[in-house]
Specification:
Elements lengths: L3 E12 L2 E8 L13 E7 L2 E6 L10 E6 L7 H8 L5 E4 L13 E7 L3 H13 L3 E8 L8 H6 L6 E5 L21 E7 L1 H14 L6 E5 L16 E5 L5 E4 L5 H7 L17 E6 L2 E2 L7 H6 L2 E3 L4 E2 L3 E4 L2
The chain binds FE2/S2 (inorganic) cluster.
FE2/S2 (inorganic) cluster binds next to loops.
Length: 321
């Protein structure tokens, strides 16, 4: 698993509940470049690896910025970051990976809910740099709880950013932004935020006539798990191409669980099917995809599987490991 060593160079308050962390290479100098929409995995401990979107401009080569909202109900990653990170702390991270890229379009509409603003800020920076036409809508509960509000207001694209606060009666359930009320074939839409927010935006844009391929999403939590259909094998065998050994995967365990229990080294991060860190090439067999990391087209191709959560529709899967 390729990793980088970085130092926490600065920490600042991004809202009442969010911190921005500036990370620089431990050895100084440039960091690997990234595209807008990319994320890094932060290794907080042997079993605590979490993905966070980069929110700075991809044109910056000397630092990565992440913004983390403290989530009391979460799985502990954000609490650990807020509690343990201090200026000067050395961290291990993955190189940036991007499952949420900008696409070619004449216009772009960016729609963020809460902390979902982070990858969209990086996109807004990139679109501004290329002189592209876009608008950014940021939906938050209140001004005090709006992450990165000050940065948005002082950015080069401030006049193209529209902030909505639900404590002022302005929320996504009151209606879609004007740019989304009617479909436009030349526009790409990007949505990032909590699950309920995204589900609502997806349903409303579909009802307004937008095509699914025009709506690009990134979730910070997995959607509801796919119901197991009759055709889904409860237990199947996962076989490793390099050794030829097959391992049974019971209904109550993941492929990643089974492989790590047998000493097979695999790469994991979110373990929820949202970051793509565990995507593994499939050489034979049909995956039963349960992830949000791949696009519908990638899932249909069936040549990679998220081994942290996805299963098999055939009795056996042969993985390129
Ligand atoms: S570890 Fe994140 S998708 Fe599997």
């Amino acid at each position: 698993m390729e990793t980088l060593d970085v130092i926490v160079h600065a920490i600042s308050l991004a809202s009442a509940t969010s911190h921005t962390y500036e990370l620089r290479a431990a050895t100084g100098g440039a960091l690997p470049s990234f595209e807008a929409g990319a994320h890094i995995d932060i290794h907080l401990g042997p079993s605590l690896i979490r993905p966070y979107s980069l929110c700075n401009s991809p044109q910056e080569t000397g630092r990565y910025l992440i913004c983390v909202r403290r989530d009391e109900a979460g799985r502990g990653g954000s609490r650990a970051l807020h509690r343990d990170l201090a200026v000067g702390r050395r961290l291990r991270i993955s190189p940036p990976r991007n499952h949420f890229p900008l696409v070619a379009a004449r216009r772009h509409v960016l729609v963020a809910g809460g902390i979902g603003i982070t990858p969209l800020l990086s996109m807004a920076e990139a679109l501004t740099a290329r002189g592209a036409a876009f608008v950014l809508h940021h939906y938050t509960s209140s001004a005090a709880d709006a992450p990165l509000l000050e940065r948005l207001g002082t950015s080069a694209f401030a006049e193209r950013a529209v902030v909505h606060h639900s404590d002022r009666g302005d929320n996504i359930r009151a209606g879609l932004p004007a740019e989304l009320l009617a479909p436009d074939p030349d526009t790409a839409v990007y949505v990032c935020g909590p699950d309920g927010f995204m589900t609502h935006v997806m349903a409303e844009t579909a009802a307004a006539g937008w095509q699914p391929g025009q709506i690009h999403t990134e979730r910070f939590a997995p959607a509801a798990p796919a119901p197991a259909g009759d055709e889904v094998a409860a237990e199947f065998t996962v076989r490793i191409a390099s050794t030829g050994i097959g391992y049974p995967v019971p209904a109550d365990r993941t492929i990643a669980d089974v492989l790590t229990a047998h000493g097979v080294e695999v790469e994991l991060s979110c373990e929820q099917g949202i970051c793509g860190a565990c995507l593994t090439p499939v050489l034979a067999g049909e995956p039963d995809h349960r992830d949000e990391a791949q696009t519908p087209d990638e899932r249909a191709a069936g040549d990679r599987i998220t081994i942290c959560c996805s299963r098999a529709r055939t009795p056996e899967l042969l993985l390129d490991l």
